[in-house]
Amino acid sequence: MERLTRREEELMHCFWAHGPLFVRELVDLAPEPKPHFNTLSTMVRALEAKGYVGHRTFGNTYQYYPQVSEAEFSRRTLGGVIDRYFGRSYLGAVSALVEEEKISVEELRELIDRIERQNPKQP
Length: 123
Hints:
The protein contains 6 helices and 3 strands, in the order αβααββααα.
């Protein structure tokens, strides 16, 4: 699946938070200064072309809805970052977080404990 621009990702967050939306509703949700209707319409059609949203027809207008969940998007995004910057090494990514002090050794131990509780070893 294609990567999203920052603005496309912001639009996806609107869909995840509010569900199906018409472009005019996206305009209303946007902060000031409000983007032009045609600008948002073009961006939503790009999201649809990338497979992130679909639409239902209501007369001569469309209501768009997310086709990718926020959780799925997060997993794909994280996987892409790890592939690109850590040579597909999740261990390398975690090591970098520890080295940069973004996660403490204690937090790492807590994470390991949580994983072990979720996946008890089978004989």
